[in-house]
Design brief:
With 755 residues, the chain is an alpha/beta fold. Helix content is 31%, strand content 17%. Molybdenum atom (MO) binds next to loops. Molybdenum atom binds at residues 174, 367-368.
Length: 755
Amino acid sequence: MKMTAGKLLSRQADGPLTRELVLEPGRFGLGKVPLRLAPDDVASMVCGFCSTGCALNVHLRKGAAINITPTTDYPVNLGMACPKGWEALTPLAAADRATTPLLRDAAGATRAVDWDTAMQVFTLRLKAIQDRHGPESIAWLGSGQITTEELAFLGALGKFGMGILHGDGNTRQCMATSVSAYKESFGFDAPPFTYRDLEESDVLVFIGSNLCIAHPILWQRVLRNPNDPRIIVIDPRRTETAAAATSHYAIQPKSDLVLLYGLANILIARGWIHREYIAQHTDGFDEFAKHVQAFDLHTVAAKTGLTESQLEDLASAIYNGKRVSFWWTMGVNQGHEATRTAQAVINLALMTGNIGRPGTGANSITGQCNAMGSRLFSNTTNLLGGHDFRNAAHREKIALLLGIPIERIASENSLAYDQILDGVERGKIKALWIIGTNPMHSWIESRKLRDRVFLKLDFLVVQDMYHSTETAREAHLLLPAAAWGEKEGTFINSERRFGLIKKVSRAPGQALSDFNIFRLVAHYWGCAEIFREWTSPEAVFQIIKRASRGQPCDITGIRDYRMIDEAGGVQWPLTEGASLDSSERRLFEDGRFYRANGRARFVFADPTPVPEAPSREYPLVLLTGRGSSAQWHTQTRTAKSDILRQLYPGAIYVEINPIDAQEARVKSHELVLVESRRGAIQARAVITGTTAPGQIFVPMHYAATNQLTLSAFDPDSRQPAYKACAVRIRALKGRAGKKRGRPFRRRSALARARD
Ligand SMILES: Nc1nc2c(c(=O)[nH]1)N[C@H]1C(S)=C(S)[C@@H](COP(=O)(O)OP(=O)(O)OC[C@H]3O[C@@H](n4cnc5c(=O)[nH]c(N)nc54)[C@H](O)[C@@H]3O)O[C@H]1N2
Ligand SMILES: Nc1nc2c(c(=O)[nH]1)N[C@H]1C(S)=C(S)[C@@H](COP(=O)(O)OP(=O)(O)OC[C@H]3O[C@@H](n4cnc5c(=O)[nH]c(N)nc54)[C@H](O)[C@@H]3O)O[C@H]1N2
Ligand code: SF4
Ligand SMILES: [Mo]
């Protein structure tokens, strides 16, 4: 149902408004922060796309940002940048920037309104819903692409100021699995590595990571490795990374857990393990060793599609390496048993003593520029600074620190993203506030989201830099946000490094930084008192510091923004008084983990069946993921650059193996119908050996892709399993454009393997 101004008023009339609004618009002049840089300055700041966290020099002329070059003396990228970084200024100037708040009117059309009207509508509507249906009736979805200070503000405002119980973010789509895995295994969400480890290993194992495309500058770091390293890629597809590796193990999709247990079994059986390390620093090894005995060579080969000798090679590469590092990304995190799979990677590193030394580690590479900020400071999956909502002492600590009554801090965790959407579908959650994410495109099984979830909402607020995104177009109220380059704050990259972003450009029209929007909301909601100290991003950074004290992510030793700027970023932890003696630091060098007894834990479970195995009717496995280094997610930003647009196919395409293409009578560049039980889409055929027979690949950057995917989640992390569901293909044109192709019937290798 679309909300209209008319409906809004009638809802206000029939919904009791028990609280009074605080309206002092005249007094609340936010103004625009003046540029602090000199008109012809060069400002170095971290990139706003991926979690690599490269530093870019933005060149100003007469106060206008005109060009970008990569920063040469930054420890992350050493003068390199990928196409997105070079083109980072272009999306700011796009014609579809949201420049004023937009409110949907009675006819369903939107009209521009001023901030006062927008904030009145926002507050009245949400308070009316909350008063009538209780604190569980509104929720927010945030983003790993806004600053740490903005995430902390949103989390504190939502939970402590507005009394919202449920808030989550797009980090759930991406990193929830690593968070759960690290928490259980290490006692804290702590990726242990520093990027230098990429250069110091002699064996690098990449599991479900297409580093060349998704983290191109990290791949450059691998190429700088002077040890002639053995690079191993475990991925069903022969990706750019797999093709460049020493060896590629093309496993059957979602057979990773079996593979990793099988490798553990070989290593244990041959005594290729580090007994001393296991005894001194870990718990649960004996049970684990017993558990993996069932994963014998024969069974593992049959389930993974690898040969027994490939398995033995892989195990001996791990054994023979002096410094073995394991790296994983979405091929692991986005699966139905993802947390256990990530932990199986961790187990391999622990049992071989490959952790806490240069060139080693069980290393999850994160995704978005500030996924790490979201993981620790967004007050969603954990209480500010990696604390626990369910722990009374933690609640007391944070209440004291923020000067709020402890009753304002819920003693329960928030619902996860998918549970929030379920709540909407069941009519329990009536309003959503979506900030810096585009779920209409990126969420799994998007038809369901459109037809069964969003339709149920009484009120949808979207806060985005563009008015044109798939999600913004559904909004009852759109709040125009300033973007990267138009505001300041910090991002935390994959190796735990705080980096700075700066304001080098003015936001268009009335757009405000997310930070200032949150300040406005606090004011109009009537809870600005709690946020007296939250006057600027840097003031909030000081609050975050205090919240981190005594935690593994303690950053009380980072003085201020200037220190981050001058040091080339600072990795957590840095405790008060500690000196920053190295620009690249890794965790666990002393073998002490964050669990109460200081030991890491072997966590494991039995493998479970995939939620939707290929069948006669839908014989192929659909893989999805990143398509090129020039495309970013739902393409709201990268599609705005003429230069980037030349670097990838403009229309949706599907990669099909030649054998499957022949069987379905599909020719190169022809249109293909790709169908799952959820939907059917058309895509251009790219016939390639990259995907194995029985599998197809469709990039996630085109909105149609998620019409095919199936709502299935890892039970521990509740991260969506984007990477495997059953589909079929059909040629839309026959050979000479006359006949329709016959439906594709061959049994996939996976289906056969599961028999
Ligand atoms: N250019 C570009 N870079 C990006 C992004 C972007 O949109 N564009 N997004 C960023 C974000 S948020 C993220 S999370 C990262 C993602 O970075 P990656 O995880 O590296 O990227 P994906 O392509 O999603 O998935 C990686 C690989 O997993 C493989 N895979 C699929 N199923 C399985 C399986 O069952 N087992 C194994 N072992 N592998 C499997 C896929 O074939 C794919 O090659 O990239 C970040 N970097
Ligand atoms: N099929 C399939 N689906 C996937 C994946 C997959 O591998 N396969 N990967 C998943 C993963 S890992 C991820 S991380 C998600 C990403 O999914 P999304 O988060 O939906 O993707 P983005 O396009 O990055 O969306 C960010 C939004 O924020 C806006 N924005 C940018 N900067 C700002 C800002 O400073 N403030 C505000 N308010 N808005 C801003 C952008 O315009 C855009 O609309 O997609 C997931 N979806
Ligand atoms: S690799 Fe990532 S951080 Fe570096 S320039 Fe490219 S998108 Fe930006
Ligand atoms: Mo992601």
